[in-house]
Design a protein that fits this description.
The protein is mainly alpha-helical. Helices cover about 60% and strands about 10% of the residues.
Length: about 120
């Protein structure tokens, strides 16, 4: 399943991932932008139509919950970005991240550790 969000949909999904099952009013409170109740409801219904969230009855309202994991959405987004802007090359993406971002010594150290673990974890062919 290809996962794709608009910016507003991503904000709503982030709220649901962070806070779990929520009503429209709760999602609205979690968002940084002050959106109308009906706008949030429309975004939730769109996400539900796309199959990314579901809902359950909660009294007179609904509680919305995610049906896709955040890790799957991240993986999909990075793959899409890599394919579209970096010619499918993870090396070009990584090179850009390292050269264009102001990384702290601690962040660089963690990246080196991750790379070392990845290399050590590979089996010779």
């Amino acid at each position: 399943m290809r996962i794709s969000f608009t910016d507003r949909e991503a904000d709503v999904m982030q709220a649901l991932w962070e806070h779990g099952s929520s009503t429209v009013a709760e999602v609205r409170e979690y968002l940084a932008d002050p959106l109308a109740y009906t706008t949030v409801l429309t975004v939730l219904r769109t996400l539900e139509t796309k199959g990314y969230i579901g809902h359950e009855e909660a009294g007179r309202g609904h509680r919305f919950f995610t049906k896709v994991k955040q890790s799957a959405a991240r993986k999909n987004a990075v793959q899409h970005l890599t394919d579209k802007l970096f010619k499918g090359s993870a090396e070009l993406l990584f090179s850009h991240m390292v050269s264009e971002q102001k990384l702290s010594a601690e962040q660089i150290s963690r990246m080196r550790q991750l790379l070392a673990e990845h290399v050590d974890g590979e089996k010779p062919q």
